[in-house]
Amino acid sequence: MLKITPYIPILVPVVIIGGLFYPLFGYFLLIDMIALMLISPFKGRFFCGNLCSRGLFNDFILSKISRKIKIPVLFKNMAFRIIILILMMSFMGYRVIQSQGIVYKLGAILVSMYIMQTLVISIIAVTVSPRAWCHFCPAGTIQRFFDRKKHILKAHKDKCINCGICNKVCPMQLPVNEIINHPDCIKCGRCIDSCPKKVLYFKI
Ligand code: SF4
Ligand code: SF4
Ligand code: SF4
Do 16 and 68 fall into the same domain? Predict the structure, then answer.
């Protein structure tokens, strides 16, 4: 986790409230998209685990009231994820065209999309699990495509005592001690910090 990671959730109310008064706040959504595409070839889904405002808002705030039940298998299904990606990108493209290239109008559209998405993400976070959305979020799926496997979770397997702590702390509910280097690992490092035997590490 980066030093700034715990402070990132504050961006959610800042973008929403700021955007209601000043549409240019909506361009935060584009900055987010550019940042994650630039980071993913070198660090996979690192953006999700350390820099995404909504993902971290769910981790630090909504996790306190989340039911934290098992994430449905459907959310992890690649066909389902591709369908959501196509639908959301098409909708976004349609809304961008509607802005007719007018800077403020596009900003307002992006703000409304940020608010709408945040509402959906938050409902899923509370009713299922804080990172349930992150399994089929289009931005997460895009990062998987750009990932060049350069920042991967590894293990000194001989030291593992199979205590299962790493599995319990993983916000993505990945079977950490069985599947090292899962493509949906968001590189949050919680499994590494929690392992009593220092089995896990990132290979840069
Ligand atoms: S999957 Fe989407 S919502 Fe979740 S952390 Fe990544 S970019 Fe943010
Ligand atoms: S927390 Fe460490 S020791 Fe325990 S199962 Fe995971 S990798 Fe093995
Ligand atoms: S496997 Fe470890 S680093 Fe990856 S998402 Fe789970 S807890 Fe975070």
Answer: yes
Determine how many CB atoms are found less than 10 A away from the CB of residue 96: 15
Q: How many domains does the chain divide into?
A: 2
Name the 3-class secondary structure at 115.
Answer: helix
Please tell me if the CB atom of residue 197 comes closer than 6 angstroms to any atom of ligand 2. Answer: yes
**pLDDT, tens only, 73-124:** 999 999 999 999 999 999 988 988 888 878 888 999 999 999 999 999 999 9
pTM of the model: 0.92
What is the domain range of residue 178? 152-203
For residue 154, give the DSSP letter. E
Q: Is the CB of 177 under 6 A from ligand 2?
A: yes
153 lines ligand 3 (CB under 6 A): yes
Closest approach atom of ligand 2 to CA 161: 3
Residue whose CA is at the smallest distance from ligand 3 atom 2: 191
What does the alpha-carbon distance between residue 94 and residue 39 come to, in Å, rounded to a whole number? 26
